[in-house]
Design a protein that fits this description.
Elements lengths: L3 E7 L5 E2 L15 E7 L9 H6 L17 E2 L4 H7 L3 E2 L3 E6 L5 H11 L4 E5 L4 H11 L6 E4 L4 H11 L3 E5 L16 H18 L3 E6 L11 H5 L2 E6 L6 E9 L7 E7 L2 E4 L3 H5 L10 E8 L2 E13 L7 E4 L3 H14 L7 E7 L11 H13 L7 E3 L2 E2 L5 E2 L4 H10 L4 E5 L14 E5 L2 H9 L1
Parallel strand pairs: 6-10, 6-11, 7-8, 7-9, 9-10, 15-19, 17-18, 19-22, 22-23
Antiparallel strand pairs: 1-2, 1-3, 4-5, 11-12, 12-13, 13-14, 15-16, 16-18, 20-21
Helix pairs in contact: 3-4, 5-6, 10-12
The structure holds thymidine-5'-diphosphate (TYD) and magnesium ion.
Length: 455
Amino acid sequence: MAKARKVFTCSNCGANSGKWIGNCPSCNEWNTYQEEVIFKENNSSIGTWNENISTLVKPILLEEITHGSVVRTPSGDLELDRVLGGGIVRGALILLGGQPGIGKSTLLLQLAVRSKDKVLYVSGEESEEQVKMRADRIGVENKNCIIYTETRVHNLLIEAKKLAPNIIIIDSIQTLQIPELDSSPGSITQVRECTNELMKFSKTSQIPIFIIGHINKDGAIAGPKLLEHMVDTVLLFEGDQNYAYRIIRTQKNRFGSTDELAIYEMKPNGLKEVSNPSEILLSQSEELLSGSSVAATMEGRRTILIEIQALVSTAVYGTPQRSVTGYDLRRLHMLLAVLEKRVGFPIGQYDVFLNIAGGIKVVDPATDMAIVCSLISSMQDISIPREYAFAGEVGLSGEIRAIQGIELRIQEAARLGFTKIFIPKSNSKGLPSNRFDIEIVLISKIETLFNILFG
Ligand code: TYD
Ligand code: MG
């Protein structure tokens, strides 16, 4: 056994200290330091199973490495393939994070039972019966899906070596442990060392491993940031549990772009891929209501038309309230200030509520234009025709700024039957306007926009 030493580690950022500190000097979080045991020698002394495997890896000349070494296998789930950059890469270590109950276990079990390959699903959270019950709900097609409820990493890797599956799924990293380590499962040491062992195994055996990780209250993956550095791909599951839609964003990907996004709908029989999100996120109501408008947003490389709803009403209490779902509150404050200063709407005296349809979170600045239109539409109680879509960023002086992906946005709006799209004037250069089956209105200033709509 290697010589052990005790240190204190910040559970948020992974910084170390010889003594306990209340406020982390590195990430400024309070009360995050936990005691952990560090082994002075490297961890090869923990278990012996990996010693002979590691000799398989030899230094190799860069020239001799062939391109074909990145082999991708489709997972059978188009949305998952998309966020992975086109399929599961051999030997990849993929971390899937998300809040409890969002659908992490469902998604990966779904992958396991629908795959055509041999899959080893390691469950430290649920019993075999529980996994079976869930699998039955989803529908089992794979005869080669093995469930294993082991939490000791070395036992599980010995078994994995014998079984030689095509994919390994770990649910979850926080339940795994190396009993030789003097700390409980889920602690920083355990999480880090277990991931380390899994990483060595995936790299030497070339078996891709999916790891489920819990996230803490701020939405970061629990355990040191180190975990995110160790894995090849970090996928984050987000969405509101009160809505059926779930989104997976790629936060890091060594084998592809981080611009990708997967959208699912939670159904009684598992997660269903949503290939055409706009059609669900637009209101189906027949009545024309004030305060609602449609934004042509881009999430990653996908164009999604989303309905924005605003409610602006006279403040009942002294301080006006501002409340948002699915959008950045500070950005809303900025837009309100622009409306007040540049266009002269006395919006400071009103309560403002803003809601993005479907529990989806948007970060695209091109949503600005639809938001200001919604706000004014609600305040003036004048509805915006349902056939209008908006895409443009609002600058601090009320100018409408250019956005990226303009052609894709126009195409998607035209495809969905919108008759008019309002876009920044600065985007018009080189835009073949007669190519689209939709009227394009160029806007350079927010005042012009309001004159057209509410003038
Ligand atoms: P789960 O996948 O266990 O979430 P996590 O592993 O991220 O904690 O469960 C997600 C929720 O989805 C759970 O509350 C029950 C629900 N659910 C369905 O609606 N349909 C289904 O087919 C399944 C399996 C779960
Ligand atoms: Mg789970």
